Fold this protein.
Amino acid sequence: MYFRLGKSRVRILPLLTITGIVLVFTLLWYLSGYSLCHRESSHCACYKCLTDSDPWFTGVIGEAPKPFLSRKYKLSEDDFNWWKHLQGPKHQNVTLYNETVDKLFQILTPIADVAEPSPDRCRSCAVVGNSGNLKGSRYGALIDFHDIVIRLNYGRTKGYETDVGAKTTHRVMYPESATKLDNTTHLLFFPFKTRDFQWLYKCLNPGESGFPHSNKIVNKDLIMILHPAFIKYVHEVWLGKKGYYPSTGFLTVVLSFLMCDEVNIFGFGADSEGNWSHYFGILRNKQIKTGAHPGQYEYEMIEKLHKRKKIIFFKGW
Ligand code: C5P
């Protein structure tokens, strides 16, 4: 078939066929791109959601048990047998554990399970470790910009606002690292031994025990207790059983993957001598290194998550 254009004749059938093929391919390419984008962005309302496809990440996070302990969700015998080795032999008694936890849950408001991501919400989280690399970082405003700011142990803000920010929505602690919480801060309580549950119970019942730490926890409705099985999961699945057990910081990083849609990490990393020194205070014990925890491996795992674009790791100075 020919088409007359001025004096020249143009072959129109092949032209139409080629144009058709190009159009079909363009449409297919567009649709596949659209459906991919659409599927990924529908998980949450952030620019990039943690749940965006990554088979490795989805597999590892898919093995997570429910992260918080509740009256409904108790500790299995298997998990207790692993967890009990984090404490001395005198306190490894399962009956004592069960009695203590039952007593505690008689006075605690049951917490809701962590909420699934939703297309109309973006929960951005900053996990702030206590590394000395925060000194001079000027990350403060950036950290405070997140919806949820999770701080650890003694990680203070007063006097360090420019580098670490001022906002704290959640604070991770256990008895040995307890600081006073205000009425609006969620307590992420990490139990490493039965005595930790006993401590928490005493804090909430000062009248019963005349306990000196009773004023540390003001709002008992904001207490979330990490499930011991979650510690085991992080040790085995994320860290391949390296080290004695995971650090509070690394446990918090993994926990944040279940609580948040977008996670950014600050304040992780040893100093030039390999010690976990802090942005506050001076390190006295230069032999501390990373304690019982596989610090270097945890650090490399955070770097890996950054490289895979699951998180952004702000390394400080
Ligand atoms: O020292 P502390 O346990 O309070 O710090 C909280 C967490 O921050 C640690 O468990 C560790 O994961 C992380 N950290 C770090 N590098 C440091 C200090 C702390 O990665 N220099």
In short: The chain has one domain: 2-314.
